[in-house]
Amino acid sequence: MERTWDAGRPVDLLGTLGPLRRGSGDPAHRSDAAGYRWACHTPAGPGTLALSAAGPRVTARAWGTGGDWLLQRVPTLLGESDDWSALDVSAVPVLDRTRRARPGLRLPSTGLVLDVLVPAILEQKVTGQEAWRSWKQLVWRYGTPAPGPDERLRVPPSAPVLLDIPTWEWHRMGVDLRRQRTIRAAAGVAARLEECVTLTPEAAVARLRVVPGIGAWTAAETVQRALGAADVVSVGDYHLPNVVVHLLTGRARGTDEEMLELLAPWAGQRQRVMRLVEATGIGAPRFGPRFAYPDIRAM
Questions:
Q1: Residue 158's closest CA among 287, 45, 297, 66?
Q2: Pair (123, 214) in one structural domain
Q3: Which of 7, 61, 176, 208 has the most Cβ atoms closer than 10 angstroms to its Cβ?
Q4: Which residues fall within 8 angstroms of residue 74, CB to CB, at 6 or more apart?
């Protein structure tokens, strides 16, 4: 199955879809010079989507029973309704330059909640490398081969499969008991959580937070990707407050409260500003050795 979509504007394919990929070894997401490939469970079944872009023109190919669903959602996935025209960052030269250099950057909207929720749960209270390793092992061990010609792609495990994974297998993948319980709780009400895509971002965050173990940070990370929420900020992140405060004030460290205060002038578009902040590639200064998280698998 194939379709072509003319966005009528530049399309930054890898920049837009980059937040969906969990590390360079993510078996469900792969990108290279040829484009971007994504394997997932859709409401119609498993599917694979392959995207390439040249200027405003996007070519999409899909495989599997979920292929047609994925093709229909290509414009939404790539931010067709994500309007950045009113965003003014001219007061911050580095952000203004980044926006001019990346005119095709948009917020992705997958329309799938569990697909982005599970890796977000795995990222709770651990380093990114630790979480990405667990996600990679989870998808390889319990996912299924993705439809289509790319043998390196895997469809992540469905909710019923997640519920059947025993505790000792989670442990072997480096996932502690608290995150195991949260994933099981989410998988048990997966159908209700998928309804979040029909809600406002605020209502979707509220519904997600009803699930034991899902807090403000995890709900925000999920809604940003599943709904393309333009104003939802991840509060409680280990790095983001430092990055935002450093970029906007020059200070090396900051708090969530300071970050939100600095983002207040862009109310309604704060997540778009956050994407620009990340796209600058500027990080906060580091002091001392890197944090070494204890390997759960050795306990």
A1: 45
A2: yes
A3: 208
A4: 3, 5, 49, 51, 58, 60
